[in-house]
Design brief:
Length: about 350
């Protein structure tokens, strides 16, 4: 089996270090991909530090992968060597259960094969992510990157893009809707770009006053600094939809008060600790608190095509893999504008 260079967390909370993994030879239906770029998602940090519990080590994170097809296995029809492709949070699923047949593989009843910190569908072989020079993925879980998108800046679409596109679509985001994006990090800045492209009137809610000019450049019409509690009164009952991307514990009740009657707050950020929700925050105005998990493969391709049409990519800071531990520390300080993307050329061949 081909040896592949990677970076791994050897154990929970330890710094990532160079590591060798083995990738399978591309079998029937497989696509072998040379990884060019991999985005750094906050979920990588949560999992490398085992903040959600149950993590598997050594762990090679990375589920925002853009690369070029190197070889294809027998029977592969949609891809050829040289194609620019993407891989997101899943590399396989059972393909037969009701959610899989309905193109929501993220809810596969057998549990999808996540790109890392999981197993292949044999439930034995560990999966390793995109902080590596090569991946082998079954054709159905490989996405086409539209022509014209910068490969490094497109990488974050594979998780941050779909995770924010899907709830905007699920809750019918349309022209004129008042949408609040809560937290301006990797997911948040994609939510702003996507909601603006759908015609929404977007307000950014952020703890970082210094991000206000960026919020407006990204297309938001307004900015609210959440360290000032007065904004929760002045902007109360105004919003149709809130997309909450915050990665740490915060006050859900305060944000629910921003919704108009029948408004919806969709939680996509996954703070490790639970937070209370008062029933009054929901019954006063028949408000809904919802959640959303990435998106299915079909919807991910739809999102990529939408981004191709609208020229949407992520704002990225490209880093060599040797800076990954520093990048994690900066993300924890909300110091990212707005996605770190690893250039895998820095890792070299095995
Ligand atoms: P990120 O780039 O680190 O952005 C998170 C942002 O949240 C920060 O930039 C900051 O924005 C805000 N924030 C951080 N700590 C805060 C605090 N204590 N109080 C208030 N705001 C705070 O992270 P990301 O990659 O966008 O991921 C965000 C979350 O989504 C993570 O929990 C991740 O695991 C989760 N996620 C979920 C899914 C899903 O399928 N649902 C998929 C991917 C990621 P400001 O500076 O603007 O305040
Ligand atoms: Zn992610
Ligand atoms: Zn399934």
């Amino acid at each position: 089996m081909p040896k592949t260079s990677a970076y791994a967390a050897p154990a929970a909370g330890e710094p990532l270090v160079p590591f060798q993994i083995e990738r399978r030879e591309p079998g029937p239906g497989d696509v072998e991909i040379d990884v060019l770029f991999c985005g750094v998602c906050h979920s990588d940090i949560h999992q490398a530090r085992d903040e959600w519990t149950g993590a598997i080590f050594p762990m090679v994170p990375g589920h925002e992968i853009v690369g070029r097809v190197r070889r294809v296995g027998r029977g592969v029809e949609r891809f050829r060597p040289g194609d620019l492709v993407g891989v997101g949070c899943m590399v396989d699923s059972c393909r037969t259960c009701a959610p899989c047949r309905q193109d929501t593989e993220q809810f596969c009843e057998a549990t999808a094969a996540y790109t890392y910190n999981g197993t292949e569908m044999d439930r034995v072989t560990p999966t390793f992510g995109g902080y590596s020079t090569r991946v082998v993925v079954t054709e159905r879980f490989v996405l086409k990157i539209p022509a014209g998108l910068d490969p490094a800046a497109a990488a974050p679409l594979l998780c941050a893009g779909i995770t924010t596109y899907s709830p905007l679509r699920q809750w019918g985001c349309k022209k004129g809707d008042r949408v609040g994006v809560v937290g301006l990090g990797g997911l948040g800045h994609m939510a702003v770009k996507l909601a603006v492209a759908m015609g929404a009137d977007v307000t950014v809610f952020s703890t970082s006053k210094a991000k206000e000019p960026d919020a407006r450049r990204l297309g938001a019409r307004a900015f609210a600094e959440t360290r000032d509690p007065a904004i929760f009164t002045t902007l109360a009952k105004r919003f149709d939809l809130l997309v909450d991307t915050i990665s740490a514990k915060h006050d859900y009740d305060a944000h629910l008060g921003l919704l108009r009657p029948h408004g919806v707050m969709v939680v996509v950020g996954v703070p490790p600790e639970p937070a209370p929700v008062s029933a009054f925050s929901l019954i006063m105005g028949n408000r809904s608190l919802a959640g959303s998990l990435i998106g299915g493969i079909k919807e991910t391709q739809e999102m990529l095509d939408f981004c191709g049409t609208h020229g949407i990519v992520s704002d990225v800071e490209v880093i060599p893999i040797q800076k990954i531990n520093e990048a994690y520390e900066r993300m924890l300080r909300a110091d990212v504008r707005y996605r770190f993307v690893i250039d895998l050329a820095s890792l070299g061949e095995a």
